[in-house]
Amino acid sequence: MQTQNLQIAIAQNQIKAHVKGLVGSSFSFVISSVFKDAQKPFLIVFNDKEEAAFYLNDLEQLCDDKDVLFYPGSYRRPYEIEETDNANVLLRAEVLNRINSQKKPAIIITYPDALFEQVVTRKEQERHTLKVSVNDNLSIDFVNEVLFEYQFKRVDFVTEPGEFSVRGGIVDVFSFSNDEPYRIEFFGDEVDSIRTFDVETQLSIEQIRKINIIPNVANKLLQESRQSFLKYIAQKTVVCLKNADLLFSRIDYFYNKAEEAFKTLSKDIKHTEPNELFCNSDLLKKQLLEFSLVEFGTTAYFNNLNDIVFNTTPQPSFNKKFDLLIEDLNTNFDKGYSNYIACLSEQQAKRFHDIFDDSHLKVKSYKTMVLSLHQGFIDHDSKIVCYTDHQIFERYHKFHIKNGYAKKQAITLKELTNLAIGDYVTHIDHGIGRFGGLQKIDVEGKKQEAIKLVYGERDVLYLSIHSLHKITKFNGKDGKPPKIYKLGSNAWKTLKQKTKARVKHIAFNLIKLYAKRKTEKGFQYNPDSYLQHELEASFIYEDTPDQSLATADIKVDMESDRPMDRLICGDVGF
Question: How would DSSP label each residue in 19-64?
């Protein structure tokens, strides 16, 4: 009922409401429901980045994740403009691009550090956006000049936002508004095709008709004309604030720190004032009153707000005691409540079923659902109980913020560009040689990138970048330099044949050993018990797929009467 009241209120323009009584992830369910009904953009401001990220993950699951965007701060320290985080800059640019594209409404999640920064004006961003469509008449030289003007860095292979490369009639560019880089193929001065591609494999992902290439929105190039983010978003946006008084106090703290920091800034920005780059609380208060405003929390900062009161309470603590949990679920059922347990994975949901099936107490009614929520709650109006598995077991629950390019920082191409001239590399077919750098060679009249490998007696091998899987960086024993053979000699072939012969000899001995082992009898363990299920479910981290597979295989072996023969090697992965 109260959700409907909030929906009705938001349907009216310029509403001012104070929503009380929402705890945990009940907030996420209400916002997702209201957003779907309203068909208006939402801006939700949380207390800090961590809280914002938790609710971001909630809403990504409850709504279409493409309609939920994260708007972080650019700088490592909000009140200084020296160190930016490329991942954050990309996320900010994605939000600005989404607003400009006038697609369907989105939920934008943010926090004080991000709102504190002013953004480039729409007019300024439009002026510094390169729009490219299939069949456009553009010269590669023009694109090259524009990207240099946008302060993109020209490299051999793009690996992160702000980089581009030119190879013949192909331009690869990693815009600050997309998770994946673009590959633009030219036929003369005409754009023949545009596609996104995977940095690691270099394989195409999706064909695209048109793209916007946006520079670093925190760059000094775009600092001539800036405004508050509240001036950038659409007027019909519904702004939701949690603890507005804390928001304004943090903004004032940042602004005071910025004034101190600007007194010691370098000469090239000595004439810049904090108010040209940052917002103060007075400015934000004035601008917020121009929007439909919804405050969440026990007390409201602004006056004359309509109260909408929900009746929810937090998930109780069970201290990992399943008897208490079962009694609580049964009490809820007797009162007419529906019980739900939100689990991180199907595996965790199965553990709950196993635990309840093995328990001496019977659970009258409950349902599990695979939904990773921030915090559980009890909605007394709707008579719904929603508990989370990580709170029941007091497990560590972490948030996830999208960082599309970060997973590709240790890629083959990047390792290749980090190789120094003279480093040893191993080619599967030709053996160990020295890295001679990247060179352009003529292949049937066309220039192509190739890797130069130098072997004994000054032999040279050119390897196509599409054959990177055939080489690896050489790692020898004790740092001793390896022996380099003449290209085409039988030495490498002979060495590989000797190695294969030794492997076959080892394999033969192993087969004899395994045959003997199969005739032996080992200790046979019982299947998992109630205590085993409870122990596994309470573990504070979720297993990776490989860990789950290893555990399952070990259990199969332990429950067999054959002796187990396994070596589990766990790489910490620092």
Answer: EE---TTHHHHHHHHHHHHH-S-EEEE-SSHHHHHHHHHHHHHHS-
